[in-house]
């Protein structure tokens, strides 16, 4: 497998961009090696500048749930582009996507579109603080809620891989109000609520995907709901990753727990930059211009991006489509597991751990065989499978990962398991 041209590009991007990338995890720092430079993506496959192709299990970090360049989405986007790239005005496109999201998630009575998951979480925190008149927030170790200052008390994936739980440049004062608890530990949350009166909200990834895939233990989400209600704090589900991924109605439908606010990103934009936050109507009524909580965005609700999101969710909602993707993920997970490793899926998200049992929090995730993952990742790449370049990332399966593609992954896997042992 040649990588001459990728290396040449990596030299150019390395001079231009920190780490040669536009977002840290892409640099392969977590696994070593050179990231292939991708010129084209179609279906389940990526094509690099050296003429290699790979089965992609990153899916643009989640959004490409129908597979890359799905004709229904690309056709609709191309048609919408002809009518202008954006006007900064109300449009039918945002109304359509907004209504569909509100239909799929009953807890989302109203919502506001933004441009990224980071922005959605940042705005939801501001709203939660304003609505409760409190400043403190509880988050979980290893959960990622974007890179806004108050959440960088202990971040997942990128920050973890680089070993800097707290980023320089984040004022101590800003994270003083952020309380961090271990994931799946209700006792720690109860204690934090007991010891701190001023807690505005609990932010949680209802299925954690930014420290590798870690599902909630039985009763965890229900317990958070009860604690929030008891202590007058808001429950905020960060469904940027899980939204339309673990269930069409998000993790809140899968586990039947209603949050007060929900954050969206990734799939909601179908591959273009979209985020959103939504929830109880009385809370959203406090957002400007209806209410005093300021939040705005020049490109928010961009019609081309709204079109990509709408077409993606529309296709996903068609009978049988979501179930077919879950079946693809289940087939893949079943093919990958064995005695020395655990592989499982939650909906269309997949996790693989080199460990006897699946970790339940960040501490346990760190005790899995991370070195083995690095060797495995390199071998899989050499065998034409593009995995997330870190053990602390979830894998994303799409509609395009049909039997033939899964077979190709399993063949590469057999070879890579031996090579990485
Ligand atoms: C990706 C992600 C974010 C951040 O979204 P961006 O669009 O990258 O800013 C926030 N929360 C979760 C759970 C995510 O997976």
What report would you give on this structure?
The chain is of the alpha/beta class. The protein has a domain at 90-316: Aspartate Aminotransferase, domain 2 (3-Layer(aba) Sandwich). It has 15 helices and 14 strands. It has helices spanning 4-16, 71-81, 92-104, 117-132, 157-161, 172-175, 186-195, 220-231, 250-254, 281-284, 303-317, 321-336, 362-366, 370-382, 403-420, and strands at 38-42, 45-48, 53-56, 110-114, 136-140, 178-181, 199-204, 234-238, 261-264, 275-279, 342-346, 349-353, 385-386, 395-396. The strands form 3 sheets. It has a 7-stranded mixed sheet, with helices on both faces. Strands 1-2-3-13 form a 4-stranded mixed sheet. The protein has a 3-stranded antiparallel sheet with strand order 11-12-14, covered by helices on one side. A hairpin with a 2-residue loop joins β1 and β2. The longest helix has 18 residues, at 403-420. It is globular and about 60 Å long. Pyridoxal-5'-phosphate is lined by residues 116-118, 121, 144-146, 205, 209-210, 238, 240-241, 265, 275.
Query: Helical proportion?
Result: 25-40%
CATH architectural label of the domain at 90-316: 3-Layer(aba) Sandwich
- In quaternary terms, these chains amount to single chain
Number of helices: 15
CATH class of the domain at 90-316: Alpha Beta
As a percent range, the share of strand residues is: 5-15%
What structural category arises from helix and sheet content?
alpha/beta
Run of helices and strands: HEEEHHEHEHHEHEHEHEEHHHEEHHEEH
End-to-end distance = 22 Å
Largest sheet: 7 strands, mixed
